[in-house]
Amino acid sequence: MAHVSDHDLERYHLGMIFKEPELAALEEHVLVCPACAVRADETQDYVDAVRAAIVVGRYDYRVASGVGPSQSWHRAATGLI
């Protein structure tokens, strides 16, 4: 298997990979590939941060839809909101 894509790592950490053959191949690769293991950890941190931002109310739907201020995510990440 080639290295796991960022998209697939995000899907994995969001629980969006549920077909056993795809899930098994991804997990097996991450177990034996140090580079993908590091990226998997980083992706988990990213997913956790996004979830936390949503939970504490710092998610701005206007930015996600393209109608709000473009710097909202940056301000939220730096605690300026």
Query: What's the total count of β strands?
Result: 0
Number of helices: 5
The helical percent reads 55-70%
- Rg from alpha-carbon coordinates: 16 Å
H/E series, N to C?
A: HHHHH
| Total separate domains | 1
Q: Low-confidence stretches at least 5 residues in length (pLDDT < 50)?
A: none
Shape descriptor: elongated
Write down the overall mean pLDDT: 79
Which sheet architecture does the biggest sheet show? none
Strand pairing plus helix content: what structural class? mainly alpha
From the N-terminal CA to the C-terminal CA, the straight-line distance is 43 Å
* Percentage of residues in DSSP E strands: under 5%
Question: How would you describe this protein?
Answer:
- It contains 5 helices and no strands.
- The model has no long low-confidence stretch (mean pLDDT 79).
- With 81 residues, it is an all-alpha fold.
- The protein has one domain.
- Helix 1 crosses helix 3 and helix 2 packs across helix 3 (34-55).
- The protein has helices spanning 6-13, 20-32, 34-55, 61-65, 72-77.
Short recap of the structure:
This protein has five helices and no strands. It has helices spanning 6-13, 20-32, 34-55, 61-65, 72-77.
